[in-house]
Amino acid sequence: MRLVTESESPDHRNLITIRGTLADGQQISVGGTLVGIAQKERLVEVNGFDVDIEPTEHLAFFTYEDRPGMVGTVGRILGESNVNIAGMQVARDAKGGHALVALSVDSAIPAESLAEIKGAMTATRVRAVNLS
Question: Could you tell me the pTM of the whole model?
Answer without folding.
Answer: 0.85
